[in-house]
Amino acid sequence: MIDTKVRFAPSPTGPLHIGGARSALFNWLFARHYGGKFVVRIEDTDLDRSSRASEDDILSSLRWLGLDWDEGINVGGGNGPYRQTERLEIYSRYAAQLLENGLAYRCYCSEEELAAQREAQLAAGELVRYTGRCRDLSPEDCARLEAGGRKPVLRFKVPADKIITVRDIVRGAVNFDCAGIGDFIIIKSDGIPTYNFAVVADDHLMGINHVIRAEEHLSNTPLQVLLYEALGWDVPEFAHVSLILGKDRSKMSKRHGATSIEQYRELGYLPEALVNFLALLGWSPGTEEEVFTLDQIKEQFSLERVSKSPAVFDLEKLNWLNGNYIRHSSVERLAELAIPFLRKAGYLPDVLDDSVREKVRLIVVAVRERLEYMAQINDFADVFFNDPGYDNSEAQGILTQEQVPAVIKALRDKLVGYVDDLDEDGARALLKKLPKELGIGGKKVYQPLRVALTGKLSGPDLHHLLPVLGAPKVIVRLEKALAAVG
Ligand code: GLU
Question: Is the pTM of this model over 0.90?
Answer without folding.
Answer: yes
